[in-house]
Amino acid sequence: MATAHSQFGEESQETRAEMANETATQAHNLDQLEIAEWFESLDSVLEASGPEVAREILERLRAHATVNGIDLPFTANTPYTNTIPLRLEPIFPGDQELERRIKSLIRWNALAMVVRANREEHNIGGHISTYASAATLYEVGFNHFWRARSESFEGDTVYFQGHAAPGMYARAFMEGRLSKEKLENFRRELKAGGGLSSYPHPWLMPDFWEFPTVSMGLSPLMAIYQARYQRYLENRGLKPATDAKVWAFLGDGETDEPESLGAITLAAREKLDNLIFVINCNLQRLDGPVRGNGQIIQELESAFRGAKWNVVKVLWGSEWDPILERDTEGLLVKRMGELVDGEYQKLVVSSGAYVREHFFGHDPRLLKLVEPLPDEALRRLRLGGHDPRKVYAAYKAAVEHRGGPTVILARTIKGYGLGEAGEGKNVTHQQKKLNEEELKEFRSRFGIPLNDQACIEVPFYRPAEDSQEIQYLRARREALGGYTPARTVRSKPITTDNEELFKEFYEGSEGREVSTTMAFVGMLRKMLKDPEIGKLVVPIVPDEARTFGMESLFRTVGIYSSVGQKYEPVDVNTLLYYKEAKDGQILEEGITEAGSMASFIAAGTAYSTNGINTIPFFIYYSMFGFQRIGDFVWAAADMRTRGFMLGGTSGRTTLSGEGLQHQDGNSHVLALPVPNLRAYDPAYAYEIAVILQDGIKRMYKDGENIFYYITVMNEPYVMPTMPAGAREGILKGMYKFRASSNKKSKLRAQLFGSGAILNEVLRAQEILEQKYGVAADVWSVTSYKALYTDGIETERWNRLHPTEKARVPYVTQCVGDAPGVLVAATDYLKTLPNMVSKWVPRRMATLGTDGFGRSEGRASLRDFFEVDAKFIALAALHELALDGKIEASVVEKTISELGINPEKWNPVTA
Ligand SMILES: Cc1ncc(C[n+]2csc(CCOP(=O)(O)OP(=O)(O)O)c2C)c(N)n1
Ligand SMILES: [Mg+2]
Does 253 contact ligand 1 (Cβ within 6 A)? Predict the structure, then answer.
């Protein structure tokens, strides 16, 4: 059956191919006169009535054709030519020759940075060819479009392509913003006087870079949500509406990352005409062509047009215009659309004779079009992305476009100008060295005023301050309000410590069983009402608000929608109806953790990008956080994002029923590597209140560049009152929650518990005391990460200051003198308590949830993972036996008394 099907498939394919051939032949035999007549009529309509009427006629013709059985294939593509025809091209407002000279000098300095760095130290890396292909795309923006941020205007926001960083540094050098020494120390940040980071990193260059873009795919998504966030701030009245734009520069290879195109429909849906993507279509990525056997530009065009973006293709430079004009039959555009990218890659770096033979030679009529041109002229036919006039026209069209975002697809050559050293070659991405001949050639091609001898030294070159080039470049930037990229913190800190706001949560739940999620939502509700911080709070949820009991906020603060609510919600008669509003405060992102994180980043960096201290609370299903969007978290850290990430329904055994893919025992481990992230696993409402109050103060009053990860759970239990003096310990990572009342027992234990497992530890404390006469103290460990960080910092300080009084890690201060055996239990991997075990006075038994989750109830899960009260008690007794305080046989008896099967499944591997 299967064979028959596939045979049928093959036959039908063949038949279709034959039919296509036939049609092609027929098309070829079309009466030339007839074709010319159709073109003429359209031209005359265009001339007499303009493009609107011409479009209407074509649309009606298409409908007419369909009615008459002409099957026009669906295509979101336009022909392979510039979107903006010559006759609609605006006049280029700059001094083209001067701009070319400036650009050439920037090209040289960008190349010099990389070549010099690699001469100094082999393999230090850097990229020449990305910027070489994109120089015109950047220079037109710098000279004519990107307005700097100032006190009175927020400015345009530009996401620079990470690998093009040398070009941005070289420009800043020309602008007098970066010294020669800094350029010399490109990729050598630890040199005296500092250097320049390889790529855009706000953490490393906080006065320069705003956005880390080099992990490809992140910046397009961040840019979309940035543009949307700017609209959100405007619609909520937090900032005035402006015509500021968000620009994102992408590589064409980068668009293969799912994140790159993953949110383009949102941008169109939200009508983000403040957003412009520029995709540098050099047709190459690192290893080779992006679509050797296809056309990346056409593929992207159809994706973006399908998503309702305004697409502007900038494919051909001005040199093509007269040839295109001579082509009255549309043959040239047709031919342009026939080549696959692999052919183009070769063609654009080939000799004029090769171009004549292989491109125009396809059809005698095409050959005729270029007959008057010498080979040299054919070699010099530029691509659109290298022609400032074409690029300017596209940018102008983009900033003037209304009603949706624009993407510019600009064709360029990777490694433009590198000649034999790598122009258009597959190895060009990693080219870092040029030999003497190649350097001389580059110098000559771009007219760098260096003689042969000087040029092989690859010196940085900056013309005198009063030179035309520097004067022009400065004047252009002054006209646009100053320099960019530049990162500044422009928001005012908040003024209060918010101690009063959180106080009520120190009291406990008075016997009521609530979850920490509910407790948190209560705090959020209160924060939203606060006169100072209320309006600054930005709740962000990826379609989980009901899961977290947040639906009451829908009604009270509304869900943000740029168009308000165009429908009567189905639940309008209920108290908590689904209220969307133009000034709604909640960002309900739908099922996109990556998109939500991008909103979190936009909101958490608004203190610099937008000059507003917004406080984001991103509340999500914890398992779908770090392990799904960890790279965004890393970017957030780099960007000095401030705010709170709340991992809801967390804990491997606290979330019951959901099973392996939902139950999170990992996230606190995945939070470890992020240096400026403070991670907490609180058990009680007052712990959360203390952490939030302190966090808001540290980030938004004191301006610390930290952010928070707090896990909250859905297990209801009574929230106790805050013990006196617990505050400091909560923040530092642990405090004694309940001491044993039995002061006489010789058998002692110190038990560590975190999150919901703290309650199991408290039950173990009772079992140990009542059944086995062991007096145990219970500690709430709110943050193993904080304890660990303190431990390694203390250790380091002591190592470097051997003669001074040794400092003591906080965890040692807590339990250094505490009597008895040590047991720690967590709902996360055992590695968390193990990390701090070297700073406790004795061996520490650790219980955790290593292994896959299970679909089960809490009690069974805790039994399975061996983190419940009986296993905690058992661990303490076993430790006592190891210390010789009790007999091993007592432990064995306990195992059966507690109903434990010693041959049970091993959760770590099962
Ligand atoms: C997520 C991610 N994967 C891989 C890389 C390594 N990498 C750096 S540049 C590059 C190729 C870039 O090609 P393209 O996006 O077309 O940019 P171009 O340099 O051609 O402008 C690769 C694979 C990266 N930086 N980020
Ligand atoms: Mg590329």
Answer: yes
